[in-house]
User: What shape does this take?
Amino acid sequence: MRVMVVGGGGREHALCWALRRDLPAGDLYAAPGNPGTAALATNLPIGALDQDRLAAAAEQHSIDLVVVGPEAPLAQGLVDRLRAGGTSAFGPIAAAAKIEASKAFAKEVMARAGVPTAASRTFTDLAEALRYLDRHGEPLVVKASGLAAGKGAVICADRAEARRTVTGMLRDGWFGEAGRTVVIESYLQGEELSILALTNGTDLVMLPPAQDHKRLLDGDRGPNTGGMGAYSPVSVATPALMSRVEEQVLRPTLSELARRQAPFSGVLYAGLMVDPGGTPYVVEFNCRFGDPEAQAILPRITSGLLAALAAVAAGEPIPGIRVAPESAVTTVLAAKGYPENPEPGDLITIPDPLPEGVTVFHAGTQQDHKGRLRTNGGRVLAVTAVAPAFAQAQERSRAAAETIQFEGKQFRRDIGWREALRVGRPAS
Assistant: This one.
């Protein structure tokens, strides 16, 4: 097969890395890709939102399968466009991608499907939203309904903070168009869990569970980010819980989307909060592989990924995938100023060779005119270590992250701290 991965971040580098095992070098393309994907695939200088040029490139290079990484091109209908032109594409059509592109829509789907989630109200009028806040208990969560690069959910400790946040979104345009509709919901307590499943709309193949770390600083402090690290597997994701998520969350959601003439095909990501009693509540749905969850999940898949993605895109029964029993821990290295004002252009030094079992995925990097690697985004690199035991993977990821150098580097040293406590080795 000839495969093109659309996107240029860490998730797309991880996808290229995983698919490359099943493909000869000349049969893998990335658009636009990044310096990391260039070592695995042929980079095409085409933006992920440039539908016309992507469709033309798929035809020019006789692409058999396009794998769309980011949410924005999915929401804008890239899969619809490619399929209309006869190209097989992995990812949901725009009508189904709305499950991520509109949190208000997702809440409607969950309500109709009976999926457990936090109680919420949706607003476009500031005065009405503020009146509602005055009656709402504390703490609470305010979310921009649209796509906000993983940063549109704000946990507010009290109503005063919630008023500032709602005003910032609806009046001051903090998140632009994405924040013109806000969802205000009750705060859920528990442990977060990321569950991803490959689906053709009917069949489901569950991927290894993961846990993301959204806050910038150790101890889950600091501002919310797109994700500072992840690990897989997660011991709280027992077979019983995974079965419950499939039957109470994923299948009802797929059925409701189909009922709405928006059948979902691709990877459905359920961001969950598992309460102290073990009940999974949906915090959000995503319509694509998580980032940085993909960088922790994909290295554990040892075979079957390409065949599964191709079957999903073709609407065929999904063959099984093989998952290694090892643990994977991913530590994200972010640029100085992230998440508010990341500064690009700093020189990056990565040791060569890397330690055994460690892979560095490029997210926000670029090469200067001399071929030197420099920062070019908020989240710059993702350092994934795979090892037989969680404690080993955690230590190796953290140690490798220490050895990579660039000015103002930010990273968390406690990725997987909850798991470390469970296995009896607190994170340092």
User: Anything to note?
Assistant: The two ends are 45 Å apart (CA to CA). The domain at 119-186 is CATH 3.30.1490.20 (Dna Ligase; domain 1). Residues 239-259 form the longest helix (21 residues). The mean pLDDT is 95.
